[in-house]
Amino acid sequence: MNPFTYERASDRLAAQTLGAQAGAKYLGGGTNLVDLMRETIEHPTLLVDVTGFSCAIEETGDGGLRIGAGVKNTAVAADRRVRERYPMLSEAILAGASAQIRNMATVGGNLLQRTRCGYFYDDAAHCNKRAPGTGCGAIEGFNRMHAILGASTACVATHPSDMAALDALVTVEGRNGARDIPLIDFHVLPGETPQIETVLETGELITAVTLPPSLAGRSSYRKVRDRASYAFALISVAAVLEVQGGVVKEVRIALGGVAHKPWRAQAAEAALKGGPATEAAFRAAAQAELVSSRGLRDNAFKIELGQRVITDTLVKLTALQEIR
Amino acid sequence: MHFVINGNEVELDFDLRTSLLDLLRERRHLFGVKMGCNQGACGACTVLVNGARINSCLALAVQYQDCEITTIEGLGAPGKLHPLQAAFVEHDGFQCGYCTPGQICSAIGMVEELKCGVPSYVSEDVAAEGFALTDAELRERMSGNLCRCGAYNGIVDAIQDTFGTAKGEPGKREASI
User: Fold this and answer.
1) pLDDT by residue (tens digit) across B29-87?
2) 3-state DSSP call for residue B58?
3) Contacts of A4 in chain B (CB under 8 A)
4) Contact A230, B37 (CB under 8 A)
């Protein structure tokens, strides 16, 4: 690990002043950053600890919730309002990492995790994300955990975060003031510049994630992985579905483990809205979403797996509403 | 920098790169805290910070100034074992013992989480009032602690015997996964 200096910021403004310095990085729980610093993949010269503020979950007044960026993952998952209004978010957080890590990790840091691609972590390997211009070892290598949607010839890494179904807004603050970014626009696809992962500008600080009022339908989060607990997703599906009289009134679907960013399944949503809530329609919508997918040597199975998990999740959500 | 480690107030100066794990082992000689993977995957380094379990290997010590840190040495000692330590002996909750301090700290943190109403991924309804410590819940909640000897059945029995609702009746609990 390279040497660094450390400052504990007392508030948002103090953090942004420190964070604007060259070589500065914001430090949340450190569960990913410390590991990356140890591998010298990250080498900040100043760590700005931002865990001392923005630690509350507040009502927005319209039925939504504003979650401070410094709130720990466990605190989000355990919050009674989150559990009652957004059970899918609680479930997704509880499926991530281990209890120990959830006690350390923060909401802001969760969004800024780096990929766990082995070629990114191995400094002897080719990786355009770690060392732009050196190539991608994963495309022709071991790529079971890699992307099937939105990848490029420069990078096939996946992003570990997967909560794109809630229409959340990410509030960031920097030199040019505060702005709200829809979560689905916060992360970017790799293109030719996979080292750029978000739309954050230099020194900008995530201060909160705001959840709009929850939808009326039922929701579900499902994570398919190589072991039953404490593993990254091969595929995850978060879905909200509202059915009225056998017709899909409202639907939101997000996929994890498939792309460089949490993937909102907009093609599937468009195919479903206003149509019949039947297994055949769900299957057709899932196919429409994955029609642009591309499999690599080890991960092509995810294309069929993704369709099956989307279909099955929607079938189960429909059944839950019929018996209600 | 000021810490409270197993009830003792201490002042320590150290290289900022020092993990909480290294601080506890190398500077305080608390060798019950184990380094396994050093990357947050195995849980051998689990300690309690203000009562919450964390991986001390991923923790920069500087971030935990002024916190109350509890290691296995703060829970029990030869001749006055913590009830969970005694249960690990009773139920063969270990073979080599390397993961044991982390397992025990983790289990104590887990029970506090249950008391506070923290759900788990296997909880049927995350919005429920409370969560019973079934074997399935226990295994999910302890999945951050690996035991490469494979003493998991003994670990489950020891934790159930100490904190569970069906104490001492492993045959009456649901089948293990």
Assistant:
1) 999 999 999 999 999 999 999 999 999 999 999 999 999 999 999 999 999 999 999 99
2) helix
3) 16-17
4) no
Chain A interface includes B43 (CB < 8 A): yes
- Kindly list the distances between the CA atom of residue A253 and the CA atoms of A279, B22, B66, in Å, as whole numbers in the listed order: 15, 44, 44
For domain A218-322, the CATH superfamily is CO dehydrogenase flavoprotein, C-terminal domain (3.30.390.50)
**Counting one residue from A and one from B, how many pairs have CB atoms under 8 Å apart?**
112
Q: Are the Cβ atoms of B127 and A95 closer than 8 angstroms?
A: no
ipTM of the complex: 0.96
**Cα A93 from Cα A102, distance rounded (Å):** 8
Per-residue pLDDT reduced to its tens digit, A209-229 = 999 999 999 999 999 999 999
Query: What residues contact B84, with CB distance under 8 A and at least 6 apart?
Result: B75, B104, B107, B108, B158, B159, B162, B163
**pTM for this structure?**
0.96
Residues in chain A closer than 8 A to B40 (CB atoms) = 31, 35, 97-98, 100-101
Chain B residue nearest residue A96, CA to CA: B121
Domains and CATH numbers, chain B: 2-74 (3.10.20.30), 83-172 (1.10.150.120)
